[in-house]
Amino acid sequence: MKRRVALAAMVWLLCGAVAVLAQQRREIRFPDVPGYQTLKCDLHEHTVFSDGLVWPTVRVDEAWREGLDAIAITDHIEYQPHKDDLPTNHNRPYELAAGKARERGIILIKGAEVTRATPPGHFNAIFLEDINPLDTKEFYDVFDEAVKQNAFVFWNHPGWQGEEKGRWGEEQTRLLEKKQLHGIEVCNDREYYADAHREALARNLTMLGNADIHEPAPTEPPTPEEHRTLTLVFASERSSQGIREALDARRTAVWYQNEVIGREEQLAPLFEACVEVLPPHHQDKDRVWVKVRNHCELDITLERAGEHGPGTIKLPAEATTLVRIDAPADVRAAGLSCRATNFLIGPEKPLLVKLVIPAQ
Ligand SMILES: [Zn+2]
Ligand SMILES: [Zn+2]
Questions:
Q1: Ligand 1 center–CA 205 separation, angstroms
Q2: How many angstroms separate the alpha carbon of residue 155 from the centre of ligand 1?
Q3: Of 123, 202, 287, 335, which one's alpha carbon is 20 to 30 angstroms from that of 97?
């Protein structure tokens, strides 16, 4: 009898353990592109070690559940509203989260947010070795130290206090000239900054979009419009080094609401991977009927940019859509010119694509 009770207890314990490990993960569907894996990264997050409301390990569990590959916990260095409750050791959030990140297979990047009045504003330094030496008064000393540690530095939420305060300033110029500024947030949570988008293109900075999450992650399932703002990183390998190499090479895109924002070099292959046109299953004279598969999280809209084809093609996320194409065979083979309105290669500038209809 005793043995049976012990056995039952063991089964119960095991079930409990399995239940914890089996936390469900919802994968984020953006396909890989030729030569690179598409990694979903949030490189700007807060915990109780600055003004966030969760313990560092919770950020790792959220990342797992939400289908992320990598996160950077970037607590404010200078803004420490919980310092009476938690001693200020800027390295602790990373140290506390590292074990759980290994167990979950989440890439954890050590970082911090340099938090000064705006302008010049806030900056994230990631891939740091030791955050504590960055806790210093003089603005430029912080970046000297960050770069001494080979950090990747980006300007956060440039327009968060309005367009005027978010303009590119002399501090940004000086940092850029000293090669101490490498990227810029084009989007932060629910904000998009057209000026930052223009600066990223004009000054050849890496584009980022992050959640800057402070509260616990929401529990409602995401939709194409409502989801965590992320940086898609096109990495040659799924590792911290792979992400760093891709950031340095500017191989990123920003997933923001129902759009991806990036350079044409990245968005063109991403579009190709997302939209698959199957060979026509029916035709009569100059018309064919085809199935078009959308393999990504966006509700994609294509607008006609040439003479042939439907005015608008709507391709809901993760679905197959039946489309009738009125165009001669040679035009179908060459491809219908379309504007991919969800793929932005500049402010209000959609990617131009050719929708090639395979032969029957
Ligand atoms: Zn900030
Ligand atoms: Zn922040």
A1: 19
A2: 9
A3: 123
